[in-house]
């Protein structure tokens, strides 16, 4: 999956996490009943650690809302707004948050509500309004003395700057929050925001120290929602790095937490990542079931990236299975969502630029009002017209550049396709000899650096010339194709498979011990022996001889491995064929 395709998913998780971070409000109310005070504190303690119990406490507060003081009622409205956002009811939470901002007299509560609203505006794609609010909050930040308010504002500003593509600013605000953690506050919140900022900016890997630090301060028993999201982030990184088994293990690990906390974006993310991992492992049936489950949930437009990734999985499975109609249907849906994703990126960039221009215009207008000189007024109007013209030219340039980029991408895609085809054997679709040897040599060099093991297997069909002489070359070609199909069923995605010439094939088993290599070769030999090809009512039996060479005895030099494997193959031929020769032992 292309790296850019998870950007919107990253922001969705970021928005959720930022909303959690913003929720903990200082509940220092002087005139509050003991019962209400107890319920408020219980709700605060259970917000993310035990969401079902939090809902029970919130229900108790709502039942006695009429008996609460005015300040307590505003805090309760904030809690209800947070819960509405947690449940993805953004229309309801938006109304509640704006009501707090415009009518509450508690400056600290207003700052918290504004921070949470900033996160929601970005998540619901009201980008221009979000970035305008971000500018106002950033300008206000130096005057905010309340430590808790500054902390929440910094976290939300980090989220919004990450959404705008301003990674350096996002990381800056996240690190500011890490350096100003209020007393008693969990350091899990800001480090999670930092991890997501790095992830959106393509600066995160599975072994990044920031990710390891985040897991250390966000244990599953104390911060289940944050820990779950971090685990999903790590699983996604494993998928990008070609380690689907590790990703699948992590998804199994967090399944109970997802069922307990029920956060919709994380549930969808887990399902999509599971489908991708299963597809990468070759379990197409299970991957398709999970992918169809995602589609059946009918997520809203805010979760388009989940559907895009899901349709990509379904398209690849349908294409692999030769279902052209289904593949085309899934590809069309994927392409439409992919276009919407790219349009959304452009919309964010344009909204951010528009707000910056508006901010500049406001500053210029303020300066202009301070000047009574009419000539300066005229000059400023001329400057505004010039700026408008420049923006038009810039827009035109961006359109031209956009078409140029699209053309270059299509050209590059064609070049990559032809390059890929040039690496394959036209009959068997395995690597041709030259590409196999190049890739095998490169892989062996990497294995040598990390002291990894490998096994080189050379496969030669027994009495293949008789097949061509007796049944014709067309039938010989079919025998070669059936041989390749039987062999591939026992290979892993990391193994290299190539046709060396005629009826001879080479397989490089990566990270494979001597015992594993012999076992895999024996399974391949048995599978080929069990393969039958019919010709004019006659069944053609196939058998093969296999010679093995191992890096633990032959080293990592490809020529030496080929020589030793050829020698083993020769001994297998002399030993009666239809056998595997590895060193001095033969498996029949």
Looking at this protein, list some descriptive labels.
two-stranded antiparallel sheet, alpha+beta, 588 residues, Serine Threonine Protein Phosphatase 5, Tetratricopeptide repeat, disordered N terminus, elongated, single chain, 24 helices, Alpha-Beta Plaits, 3 domains
Give structural notes.
- The protein has 588 residues and is of the alpha+beta class.
- The protein folds into 3 domains: 333 residues, Serine Threonine Protein Phosphatase 5, Tetratricopeptide repeat (Alpha Horseshoe), CATH 1.25.40; 52 residues; 155 residues, Alpha-Beta Plaits (2-Layer Sandwich), CATH 3.30.70.
- The chain is 70% helix and 7% strand.
- The protein is built from 24 helices and 8 strands.
- It has a 6-stranded mixed sheet with strand order 2-3-1-6-7-8, with helices on both faces. Strands 4-5 form a two-stranded antiparallel ribbon.
- A hairpin with a 2-residue loop joins β7 and β8.
- α7 packs antiparallel against α8, α10 packs antiparallel against α11 and α12 runs parallel beside α14.
- The chain is elongated.
- The two termini are 42 Å apart.
- 40% of the residues are buried.
